[in-house]
Amino acid sequence: MHIGVVFPQCEIGSDTAAIRAYVETAEALGFHHVIAIDHVVGANPASRPGWNGPYDIDTQFREPMVLLSFIAGMTRHLELVTGVMVLPQRQTVLVAKQAAELDMLSEQRFRLGVGTGWNEVEYEALGADFKSRGAVLDEQIELLRLIWTQRAVTYQTQHHCITDAGIAPHPARSVPIWLGGGGAGAPDGVLRRIARTADGWLPPFLPDAAGAERVQKMRTYCAEQGRDPTSLGIEGYVVAARSDTQWPGYVEAWRRLGATHAVLNMMDDGLSGLQAHCRRLEECAAVCGLTPR
């Protein structure tokens, strides 16, 4: 099982030297991949009484495609992952071009994690329709793969209109698309979409009994699609809090559930600055038994 980390973009500041030091440390310690979160704008709570979202206008988020391109130039082994890009609020053809370029520049180290998101404020700011995001995502996944693999594409649907056009250069492969979502409150249609369309899944829950049931349901849906359930990658999410002595057990629980990947999130744990985050990387790498490069 591959172990990665969530890039702590909200907590290590804007210094490019700090970004370099963090990802070089992660790579040297043996982490397999780094995940960049995607949020374009935040809402101002002052004008929205009762706002209770997990982030707001003052929360710092890097643009993930630009950030991962920057990281690609200073690493050689780390896989680069969006986790997850809110795809329906972005232009599909532009994302196809960006993803192809990043995959080429990184020598096929890019993985495109996508989802529908939850923040209507962000959709409005980007001129996208929040209510149709699920239907848009279904089309986008199909269209991305066509653009990456065909010289010219004609695709005319409710949400897209492309007539005999394509990108160049093409990536050397169809970039892997992983879908987020499918938690306890999600409708079964979300799981069915993942089973039908995704190369992998980024589930947002613990690997407990309820989580194991969701994983088994996903495998059932894969089989219903005539798909080998083991062909769907699974990335377990683990909050590696210093105060939680159980988190290493969550990593192992994901391994027992057959996860192909796990990602450690070390943010929101009182760590301040680059040095604290690098020390935490070292501690977590040791606990996970990673082999240094």
Feature tags:
Luciferase-like_sf; alpha/beta; globular; 293 residues; TIM Barrel; 9 helices; single chain
Distance between the termini: 17 Å
Amount of helix:
25-40%
- Biggest sheet strand order reads 1-2-3-5-8-9-10-11
Query: Low-confidence parts, pLDDT < 50 over ≥5 residues?
Result: none
Radius of gyration: 19 Å
Protein name: Luciferase-like domain-containing protein
Pfam family, one: Bac_luciferase
InterPro entries: Lucif-like_OxRdtase_Rv2161c, Luciferase-like_dom, Luciferase-like_sf, SsuD_RutA_monooxygenase
GO molecular function: alkanesulfonate monooxygenase activity
Structure commentary:
By secondary structure, the chain is α/β, with parallel strands linked by helices. It has one domain: TIM Barrel (Alpha-Beta Barrel), CATH 3.20.20.30. The protein is built from 9 helices and 11 strands. The strands form 2 sheets. An 8-stranded parallel beta barrel has the order 1-2-3-5-8-9-10-11, surrounded by 4 helices. A two-stranded antiparallel ribbon has the order 6-7.
